[in-house]
Write a structure and sequence with these properties.
single chain; alpha+beta; Chorismate lyase; six-stranded antiparallel sheet; 6 helices; 31% helix; disordered N terminus; Chorismate_lyase_/UTRA_dom_sf; signal
Length: 219
Amino acid sequence: MKTRTIIAATSLAVMAATAQAREPWTDDVASRTQALALLQSLNADLLSHPSATLTLERWCGAHALAPEAKILARRVKGQDKPLPADARETLGIGPDEPVRYRRVQLTCGDHVLSEADNWYVPSRLTPEMNQTLDSTDQPFGKVVQPLHFRRQTVSADLLWAPLPTGWEMDAPLPAAHKAPLDIPHEVLRHRAVLYTGTNQPFSLVVETYTSEVLAFGRR
């Protein structure tokens, strides 16, 4: 057990050193190309797995964003958003079916990786799940894991394009500068519906991924 502890501590130290050795993003084609490739990689990973929480946890660990690769959900209260106009039809519920709203920031260490708006049907969850969601900051995806849910992505939009459209076909590239690369706060957005193992929709989620997903810098 002691040996395992030493190995784990050494691995974390190596990851931290690697992260520190990386360079800041600079406004040049090399940085922009790496940033684009990373965002496309994250997007593909999110699209191929049902839980965004677990995907971000893997991303956090792989890029040494924190000493411990653990995603925490930080509740944001007092900013309730109305249910989107088409959401009741999407969720297969009537006009009087109660729907709850939950907004969270998914964090890894000091980094806010995602800001998620979630509308869900409490009658399709267990009482224990509802109590946990009401009283704790646990990520939604982890709480509802026993439902063996699947995720159907409705849309996935890259909100920031590091390179211009047609760059691969010799479109003009941005001029290089020595200044830091200006990465906007919102870089990627997914809209998805979650279904139980019996194919019943129970949640509509809009997830906006932030520039913090690239906080580890360039190689």
